[in-house]
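WARN retry 2 of 3 for item q-0093 after timeout on previous attempt; input resubmitted unchanged.
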Amino acid sequence: MSSLDRAAVLSDLAAMIANREMVRPIRVAIDGRTASGKTTLANELAECLRGSGREIIRTSIDGFHRPKVERYARGRHSAEGYYYDARDLPAINTLLLNPLGPGGDGWYRTASFDLHNDVPIDQAPQFAPADAILIVDGTFLQRPELREGWDLAIFVETSEHVSEHRGIARDTALLGGTEATRQLYADRYRPAFALYESLAAPAHCADAIVNNDDFERPALRIREGGRLFAMSRKLQHS
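OK item q-0093 returned
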């Protein structure tokens, strides 16, 4: 099979989102392990949806970090610190999700914190038209504190081995070398995701699951009536 298989999955996901009838913006979460391919999938999906003529709001949860002193208060390698302390959950709801949700005024912000400079930012609000589509990627997006803020959740499923292999290759220069990066994944990211699974069961609750172990040949399952169904091009022909 070729990369056209990935294009088919993206088309099915785009159709699932575009066919969702709402009188306000649709808020879509792209959730999954660290280095599962969330950002790439979200970017590709946003590009597919731009052809609809609707406004696409594409952002990441990384604009809502907490200060470094708070993120690492439990230690740089703490899994609990990564899950509980990394991001400003009230800001995500107040500035981004609630304004686009039921009763919201449509004026949203995509960031509250400059991670590189470790300082808060006061971003000017932007207005979303009623037919806009918000696509947000990040870890732990279906945690209880955020779950009600999404209209659709797409879970990017990968094995520990695949995601860590990709992540270590990607993050080695940023995190201080191969062994330091490998240790950080073992101590912080992997157990934090296990904690997330135990608390939120993200794959069980997602509206769609994309198995991304094989990047060129992802597999899509859509939840209908509480059950997951494997998809090909069903949505376009229904």
